TrEMBL record:
It comes from the Eukaryota. Keywords: Membrane, Transmembrane, Transmembrane helix. Residues 20-71 form the Alcohol dehydrogenase-like C-terminal domain. SUPFAM superfamilies: NAD(P)-binding Rossmann-fold domains (SSF51735). The chain crosses the membrane at residues 14-39. The keyword Plastid does not apply. The lineage of its organism: Eukaryota, Metazoa, Spiralia, Gnathifera, Rotifera. Pfam families: ADH_zinc_N. This is Alcohol dehydrogenase-like C-terminal domain-containing protein.
Amino acid sequence: MCYHFSLIRGETCVIFYAGPIGLLCLQAAVAADATHAIVVKISDKRLKKAREMDASLVINGKEESVPQQIKN
């Protein structure tokens, strides 16, 4: 749970989970003009929704190496 959200323009934000709260955090990151708003989830349905909401990168944590994908 996020109790305090502080994102400066140009920063990178990684969001684990893409449920309602995670997608709300994604929306806030996009609105704050984050350089990269990355979403990690294992549900293809939720990752599709994150793509539709302008996530700069979506990672299926079950199929891909999360640290490796973030580094790239």
